[in-house]
Design goal:
The complex is a heterodimer of chains A (643) and B (141).
Chain A (H helix, E strand, L loop, with lengths): L1 H8 L12 E6 L4 E6 L2 H7 L2 H12 L13 E4 L14 E6 L6 E6 L3 H7 L4 E5 L6 E6 L2 E6 L8 H12 L5 E4 L2 H4 L7 E3 L2 E3 L4 H7 L2 E7 L9 H17 L5 H5 L4 H9 L20 H7 E5 L9 E5 L9 E3 L3 H8 L7 H14 L3 H16 L5 H4 L9 H13 L3 H5 L2 H9 L9 E2 L2 E2 L9 H9 L12 H5 L22 H18 L9 H12 L7 H21 L11 H5 L14 H15 L9 H6 L18
Parallel strand pairs in A: 1-6, 7-12
Antiparallel strand pairs in A: 1-2, 3-4, 3-6, 4-5, 7-8, 9-10, 9-12, 10-11, 13-14, 14-15, 16-17
Chain B lengths: L2 E5 L9 H11 L9 E4 L2 E4 L7 H5 L5 E3 L6 E3 L9 H5 L6 E2 L5 E2 L9 H5 L5 E5 H12 L1
Antiparallel strand pairs in B: 1-8, 2-3, 4-5, 6-7
Classes of the chains: A alpha+beta (643), B alpha+beta (141).
């Protein structure tokens, strides 16, 4: 059947194009694996990466599954552009049910693992079950080996990477693994791969719960594309226009994400001291200039001409010799400004510890900032913290706390599952200061200074996330050009008007983009992306850019369906109380909160524009319009008219 | 003036675009292990096109020749018997064994190296040898 489809879909050519056309299914419980053909109907409709994994997850995951139980499914997915010359397309995603939020989770990492998996002959890996004892997988060109990981337990991420390569005797092998935090089922644990991290949502704990310490891969195959000449030309054009010709992509090359820190500071949306203010007086000490001063080298993900990351080395002081890739903007915000810490050396050390222990820097930073506020407000006392003085700005305390979180020692055990659960455990009104949406700690753009960002957080599929729509750029930071992701929309910074339209457009683009997968740091042009897609795959319908945008909408709706089936309703699409109640103290948004009525208006607009019902559920008409009839039988709320 | 391929490993970001461009031009597929250039952390394997190529010395059938025009060390596919003696002889790992057992090596793309086109950071340069000399002098002053 698959072959017939292939002949039909692709004009006269039999070789597999762009996709490896195989998905590896691994059952850890029985230590068996099967190789399944890629469902090409899914691939055409959902592209790859985020979308394709969502479609598979919809089939494989039963709503209500315990995220840390053996029934949870962990999907690793590459995209059709992975491993080709398409710029900044060397990323891959892990998709699962998040132990932090209890809903959909997709999390991305760059590095070198994704192309290697594709070269090994797989578009993706689906992992079921739970191993009886610590295990790691070795995927070697289509062969899979279940290997004993007893000796790897307790090792940090970089130690694990090194040990696996040594054991397998090949330094060109690529490894994804968890650190001690993932082993201890910390719900803010990351999966690390080649120094990059699937940061958000606790995918590391899912691996830990499956007793899966690492996955190693070696691939010697290649990737071919459907229309070689057009594809090469499109790649060249995209590199020229989207990477080097777009002023908005410039920050990646000049200073990397730390450049954003000063934009946020000037816009007054840099969250400071647990979201108490939108400007940090120490910002200039931890900005891009400060980071670049300590930079020793640059590094790129595979197939990326931007090379946004910097390695820095701390040259003096108590943290002398600390070497770390980063810190990125979100880390500078969460472990810096948000904890009131203006020392780059301390942030570097904290970043290093998080990377090694396998913790998400955003979640850790926001959780520690919350502890600091609770401490200053007297909700927590030195008795609770094991004698640590947890005022804002105390970098030594922050470092100690990170170590404790990674090892689940003392108060670290309470904090290791993120701020929402920690607040629930501590109680005493501390919930009021916990900054998260649906359990996912907020990143570094304050919605009081950027209302559309509030809507983006509230409606992001995986909880409080800045990478499902990034309206703050055009709304508050004066960004223009490609950051509009289409023709500019008439907006006023403080008014809720038209914000829903902006956020929806961005969500569709990101959903389609993360299915290709192209990195969020370049290529904000749908036409360029869809050209890359059809020339690589030969899926001719994507010659029409509307089909690409429609795919984005389809993916967004599918994930919303998954989330609604997990119990998400309108009341979950909200923001932490601080955003509505505590005015900012300085900057352009001084004295402002996000007014509840403004927020409600944006949400109502958003549902209406999406043609969802008042509870935020996709309706039958919409799903049919998006060619999603196949999922309708599993949807409970559609009632009689659906069948 | 003769042009040479110069690589500044300190600049390399390990993005691998050179590998992809090379394998695509030579083999029609994106596959770093079939490229004439291979990136390792802080190291790059590529033919140096030596003036006195050790690979040519060990080649029993005379399949490796030095092209006087471009300075490229080339393998004659017609003559090559696939003994892989050259792979072992190269002190730089510049001759690469592809997964299907074939010997792969940089041929400077007949004087227009594809890898250089895709090295946006400027770590791989295709320069006239006089410029390289000037650069080296500056570096060691």
């Amino acid at each position: 059947m698959t072959n017939v489809n292939k002949f039909k879909n692709r004009v006269g050519i039999v070789l597999p194009y762009a996709y490896a056309e195989r998905i590896l299914h691994v059952d850890l419980t029985t230590r068996k694996y099967t190789v399944e053909p890629l469902n090409l109907v899914y691939a055409r409709k959902y592209i790859g990466g985020k979308g394709l994994a969502a479609r598979y997850l919809f089939d494989l995951l039963k709503p209500g599954t315990d995220p840390l139980g053996p029934e949870n499914v962990l999907i690793i997915m590459t995209g059709p552009l992975t491993g080709t010359l398409a710029p900044a397309a060397g990323k891959y995603c892990v998709v699962t049910k998040s132990p932090l939020t209890g809903i959909w989770l997709d999390s991305y990492a760059g590095g070198y693992f994704a192309p290697e998996l594709k070269y090994a002959g797989f578009d993706g890996v689906v992992i079921f079950g739970r191993a009886a004892k610590p295990t790691y997988l070795f995927i070697d060109d289509g062969e899979v080996e279940f290997r004993d990981a007893e000796g790897l337990m307790g090792k940090t991420t970089s130690e694990t990477d090194k040990a696996v390569k040594e054991e397998l005797g090949d330094e060109t092998i690529k490894v994804m693994c968890i650190g001690p935090a993932g082993e201890r089922l910390s719900r803010i644990a990351v999966i690390s791969s080649c120094g990059r991290h699937h940061g958000r949502g606790g995918a590391g704990a899912v691996m830990g719960a499956k007793n899966l310490k690492a996955i190693a891969v070696r691939g010697t195959g290649g990737v071919t594309v459907a229309c070689p000449e057009e594809f090469l030309r499109t790649c060249e054009e995209s590199i020229k226009k989207d990477v080097f010709g777009d002023p908005n992509a410039e920050f990646g090359r000049s200073g990397g994400t730390p450049e954003i820190l000063m934009w946020a500071q000037e816009a007054g949306c840099l969250p400071t001291r647990n979201y108490s203010n939108g400007q940090f007086e120490g910002a200039s000490k931890i900005d891009a200039t400060a980071v670049l001063e300590l930079a020793v080298r640059r590094r790129a993900c595979f197939q990326c001409p931007i090379a946004c990351s910097r390695w820095i080395r701390v040259p003096s002081g108590p943290y002398i010799g600390t070497e770390v890739e980063g810190p990125e903007f979100e880390t500078l915000y969460s472990l810096g400004a948000n904890c009131g810490i203006d020392r780059l050396d301390a942030i570097a050390k904290a970043n290093f510890l998080c990377d090694e222990l396998g913790l998400d820097t955003i979640s850790v930073g926001v959780t520690i900032a919350w502890v600091m506020e609770c401490y200053e407000k007297g909700i927590l006392t030195p008795n609770d913290t094991g004698g640590i003085e947890l005022e804002f700005g105390n970098h030594e305390a922050m470092i100690t706390l990170i170590e404790k979180i990674g090892k689940r020692e003392g108060i670290g055990d309470i904090l290791a599952d993120g701020v929402a659960l920690a607040a629930q455990r501590i109680g005493s009104g501390s919930e009021r200061y916990a900054v998260h949406v649906k359990g996912l700690e907020l990143p570094g753009y304050d919605p009081r200074a950027s209302p559309a960002m509030g809507l983006a957080y509230a409606t992001a599929d995986r909880g409080g996330c800045h990478l499902r729509a990034w309206p703050v750029g055009v709304e508050a930071m004066g960004a223009t050009g490609s950051f509009w992701m289409g023709t500019p929309i008439e907006i006023d910074r403080w008014s809720p008007k038209n914000k829903a339209m902006l956020v929806i457009r961005m969500q569709h683009q990101y959903a389609a983009k993360f299915s290709l997968i192209i990195c969020d740091f370049c290529c904000w042009n749908n036409e360029h992306m869809t050209n890359l897609l059809w020339t690589a795959t030969g899926f001719n319908e994507y010659k029409d850019v509307r089909m690409f945008e429609l795919a984005g909408e389809r993916i967004t709706n599918l994930i919303r369906v998954i989330n609604v089936l997990e119990g998400i309703t309108r009341k979950d699409d909200t923001l932490p109380p601080k955003i509505f109640e505590d005015p900012l103290k300085s900057g352009p948004a001084k004295g402002r909160v996000l007014k509840r009525e403004d927020f409600e208006k944006m949400i109502t607009d958003y549902y209406e524009l999406r043609e969802w019902d008042a509870e935020g559920r996709p309706i039958l008409k919409k799903l049919k319009e998006l060619d999603m009839e196949d999922i309708i039988p599993k949807i409970t709320w559609l009632g009689g008219d659906a069948r | 003036m003769k042009k040479v391929l110069m690589i500044d490993i300190k600049k390399c970001t390990e993005c691998g675009l050179c590998e992809l461009a090379c394998s695509y031009k030579k083999e029609g597929e994106f596959n770093p292990r079939k490229a004439g250039i291979y990136i390792l952390p802080k190291n790059v394997l590529v033919c140096r096109h030596c003036e006195k190529p050790l690979c040519a010395e060990v080649c029993k059938v005379g399949a490796i020749i030095k092209d006087e025009l471009t300075g490229a060390v080339l393998i004659d596919d017609q003559k090559c018997i696939g003994c892989r003696a050259c792979v072992a002889a190269c002190p730089f790992g510049g001759i690469i064994l592809s997964p299907d057992g074939k010997v792969v090596k940089c041929d400077l793309c007949r004087g227009n190296p594809e890898c250089v086109k895709y090295c946006f950071i400027g770590a791989i340069k295709w320069e006239e040898s006089s410029k390289v000399l000037a650069g080296a002098r500056r570096l060691h002053r």
